[in-house]
Amino acid sequence: MTGTHAPTWPRCGHLDTGELCRGHKVEPYTACLAHLDSAERAVYLASLTPGADLDHRGTPFTQNLLDELLAPLRDPGSGRARVGKASFDEVRFTGDAELEAIDFDGFCSFASAVFDGGVYVREVRTGGDFRLGAAQVAGDVWLDDTQVDGDVWFYEARIKGTLQFCVREIGGGAMFKGMACGDAYFSGLRVEGVASFTSAVIDGEAAFDGAVFGEGANFEKVRIAGRACFDGTQFLTSSARFNGADIGGDMPFAEARFEAEATFDGAAIGGDLSFSQALLEAGVSFRRAVFRRTARLGPLVCPGTVDFSGAVFEAAVTLEAAAREVLCRQTRWASTATLRLRYAGVDLSDAVLEFPVTVAGRTRPFVTPEGETITEPGLTDAGVRVASVKGVDAAHLVLADVDLTGCLFVETVHLDQLRLEGRCRLSPPPPGPRWIRRRTLAEEHHWRATRYGAGWTPAPPGIETHEPDVLAPVYRQLRKALEDGRNEPGAADFYYGEMEMRRHNPAATRGERMLLRLYWALSGYGLRAVRALIWLVLAITATVFAMMLWGLPRSDPDPVSAGTTDGRHITLTTKKPTPVNPEGPYANRLSTERFEKSVRVVVNSAIFRASGQDLTTIGTYVEMASRLVEPALLGLAVLAVRSRVKR
Predict the structure, then answer these.
(1) Host H or E run for residue 242
(2) Where does 364-464 have alpha helices with state H?
(3) What is the rounded CA–CA span in Å between residue 280 and residue 289?
(4) Which residues, other chains included, contact 596 with Cβ-Cβ below 8 Å and sequence gap of 6+?
(5) How many CA atoms lie within 13 A of 21 on its CB side?
């Protein structure tokens, strides 16, 4: 219905259903065009010439009356009408309204008009605005082969049927804020200015394929019940905003182009999002978005950041993206998910995983459904890097073929149930003989950088540096995770890291730290076979020299028998003399014979059993020490080898 406010234009004096007609009176008459008598109407129409302005606000119209009005404005040769400015605000149109082959030099306005049927605009050009704001249309609205040099206003229009907006070009902006309609088709539309669909309601499907938005488009809080197609759409210069949008079906962006950032913050998307061959020159944000039935998102190629922070995935989803950075902070997966990524640095801080989620690095480029390779401009050849899993319940997390050199693990829950598949790289210590080659956590680098400086990676700004007593349990849980996955050699590095943190823990007792230092020095916590073997060789060498210098007697004592006889019985007692300590210069004791005997004694002590060789008192104690120390060192070397080959 038309507005109830008093019109601001000279009002028709004709009574219409008991009320004064709201139509604009035609000067010099007292009635509007609809209520002029035939003679008056003929005089008025005869006064019109092509290019005349028309002001018939509030006037009741039919198609016949509209045709009569436009007839004197048409060129007999081309059949096109030429109008200056046309004001049809608040008109009441009975039946369908058709505007065909008309050139408006100025604006054409049907603001707040009421149409009992549909509105069909064909081959129309306006030099100014085309306005249908707040209009009510009982049928369809079709704009075919139309051009608007100014702005288009459909602000809060109510269209019960389909909106077919086949406008070639809009020279200004397009305002569809608060509009409501059934299906809506904007295929091939070009808008030079800003296009706004904020809070629009489309009860069916919507198509924007091939549309061009010169200064960006605003789809914030738009509600589309069905599928929303943006294949080939171009968002030039400014951002494309879908914040708070509610899309019931799929939302394809195949071969679309985004010159600025695209934002879907707080949006609710009911179907799949396809970005096959789409060109994104900036970032994409899905912060706090809800993906209701999205089974596939991507392939999305973005040289900037793809942000899923706070988003919710309610159904099983496969997400494919090649980007500089993918943020999944506080993202919630209520079903299984697979993230197939390229190049990206991934942040999973405080993500909620209710079902298994796999983050996998992909080496091959993504392909279109037709099998064509998707290009990846603006991305360097780097592997997928996981930046953080802090606050994540890792019981459902699988990391496959990713770079963990900078990953933060502290504060991760159930880290012992994390699964590492494929090739997952961790940061090594600085090069040089001082540091043992092993896999280390980024947090250990941060801590050691505060003590040793050069070579170790310091913590980035804003990242807390943790002490060894915090890092030791992290290494322990990661070790268990690899042991449960039957990766004993990989778990050995984490055991080494755990022991290192325990050794450097200032809260540990002095005795414990001394014992750990000894364990580290002798065999690298039972993981460095070469170190244990070096100590074994040194111990054997020292024992051999000790035996040669002090342990072997001057000569092997022969048994001596002594006895008595009483004529019928002989009583003999055999005694072995006490070994005589060697004498003389040390150089004389280092003979080949004494070396051979010493080696036999030491080898038997270290590997087999007592040699049976007569020894001096010092030699006896040296052999006892050798039988205690050297088998232990040999056992540590065997243990280290076993830890590297066990499966």
Answers:
(1) none
(2) 442-452
(3) 19
(4) none
(5) 25
Nearest CA to 187 out of 161, 168, 159 is that of 168
Interval 146-203: pLDDT, tens: 999 999 999 999 999 999 999 989 999 999 999 999 999 999 999 999 999 999 999 9
Q: What is the pLDDT of residue 352?
A: 96
Pairing verdict, β 352-353 and 251-252: unpaired
Q: Six-digit token pair at 166?
A: 């086949």
Distance from C-alpha of 448 to C-alpha of 457, rounded to nearest angstrom: 8
- The burial of 132, by beta-carbon neighbours within 10 Å (0-12 exposed, 13-18 middle, 19 or more buried), is given as buried
> pTM of the prediction?
0.83
Report long-range pairs for 168-172 (Cβ below 8 Å, ≥24 apart): 172/129, 172/148
8 A C-beta contact, residue 23 and residue 60: yes
Q: Can you give the pLDDT at residue 1?
A: 43
Amino acid at 610: A
554: which 2 tokens?
Answer: 């001057």
Q: Is 67 helix (H, G, I), strand (E, B) or coil?
A: helix
Token pair of 57 as six digits = 């606000």
What is the average per-residue pLDDT within 638-644? 69
- Evaluate whether 256 touches 231 at the Cβ level (below 8 Å): yes
**Per-position b or e across 256-282, b if 16+ CB within 10 A of its CB:** bbbbbbbbbbbbbbbbbbbbbbbbbee
Longest dimension (CA), the chain: 181
Taking each continuous run of H as one helix and of E as one strand, the counts in the chain are 10, 52
Helix axes 510-523, 488-503, angle to 10 degrees: 140
* 550 secondary structure, DSSP code: I
In the 3-class helix/strand/coil scheme, how is 106-118 assigned residue by residue?
CCEECCCCEECCC
User: Amino acid identity, residue 374?
Assistant: I
Q: Are 362 and 341 in contact (CB under 8 A)?
A: yes
The b/e string for 34-64 (b: 16+ C-beta within 10 A; e otherwise) is bbbeeebbeebbeebeeeeebbbbbbbbbee
Q: Any idea what DSSP says for residue 73?
A: G
| 319 token code pair | 């997400």
pLDDT tens digits along 237-251: 888 999 999 999 999
CB 97 within 8 A of CB 66: yes
Check if the beta carbon of residue 262 is closer than 8 Å to that of residue 285.
Answer: yes
CA distances from 138 to 1, 18, 117, 131 (A): 11, 25, 5, 17
For residues 278 and 255, is the Cβ–Cβ distance under 8 A? yes
Question: CA dist 268 to 240, 251, 272, 306, 388, Å?
Answer: 16, 11, 12, 17, 27
102 DSSP 8-state letter:
E
